[in-house]
Design a protein that fits this description.
The chain is α/β, with parallel strands linked by helices and 248 residues long. The protein has two domains: 110 residues, Rossmann fold; 102 residues, HAD superfamily/HAD-like (Rossmann fold, 3-Layer(aba) Sandwich), CATH 3.40.50. The chain has nine helices and 13 strands. Its EC number is 3.1.3.5. Its cofactor is Mg(2+).
Length: 248
């Protein structure tokens, strides 16, 4: 039985509205007993928040199925030396870091960690740049530059710090294969028996390809059939929507 890693936005939901058929797909997967990870690059919501979000759209999933770039970032940092972090992000990210044993501080941090936040400001850019230039390791939850309606996302917030310091962060989220490995560890799964379902060739499908997973593209989100030929890699399967998937 295959492990399933499934994206949220563009696969299951558009904003907070159900993509028709995705509820039946997820409920069928749960009934079959496939190990399931619902994976998102968005670090602002906790597993409980995401459970409530999907539940409101008619998809009922246990909280333990959700895995975010904030969780993967905390997992990544557990494997590094140092336990002090200056954080630009919301409560869900700091919650995961506290749980991993980190001290959140602006005094000699070992890491500068950037997620998504609407309260981004000049002072944050200044402090983060000073710490990174001084040797703090620069970590970002995901490389996405924008969300719906061109709302600034993590990659855009990192850009100012990158330009000032000349240093690139390590991006934990898709298309990095780190978040895939972290999600698989979360369910004690292995890449050779796992399929990833996503709507974006350059994040979901590339991450799956780099991690050695079977890949399924659905065309209800970012990437369309015409986009497949623009990339040097191919998804293993393409479906019009999650409700049509018949290979798991």
């Amino acid at each position: 039985m295959k492990n399933i890693i499934c994206d949220i936005d563009g696969v299951l939901l558009h904003d907070n509205k159900l993509i028709p058929g995705s509820d039946k797909f997820i409920h069928r997967v749960l009934e079959q007993g496939n190990p399931l990870v619902i994976l998102t690059n968005y670090p602002v919501q906790t597993g409980k928040d995401l459970q409530n979000r999907l539940g409101a759209a008619g998809i009922n999933v246990p909280e333990t199925c959700f895995y975010t770039s904030a969780m993967a970032t905390a997992d990544f940092l557990k494997h590094q030396t140092g336990n002090k972090a200056y954080v630009i992000g919301e409560g869900a990210l700091t919650h995961e870091l506290y749980n991993a044993g980190f001290t959140i501080t602006d005094i000699n941090p070992d890491f500068v960690i950037v997620g998504e936040t609407r309260s981004y400001n000049w002072d944050m850019i200044h402090k983060a740049s000073r710490f990174v230039a001084g040797g703090a390791r620069f970590i970002a939850t995901n490389p996405d530059t924008h969300g719906p309606a061109f709302s600034p996302a993590c990659g855009a917030l990192c850009a100012a710090i990158e330009r000032i310091t000349g240093k690139m962060p390590f991006y934990v989220g898709k298309p990095s294969s780190w978040i895939i490995r972290s999600a698989l560890n979360h369910i004690q799964g292995h890449s050779e028996n796992t399929v990833i379902i996503g709507d974006n060739m350059r994040t979901d499908i590339l991450a799956g390809f780099q991690a050695g997973l079977e890949t399924i593209l659905v065309t209800t989100g970012v990437s369309q059939m015409s986009d497949i030929d623009k990339e040097p890699f191919r998804p293993n399967h393409v479906f019009a929507c999650a409700g049509d998937i018949d290979v798991v």
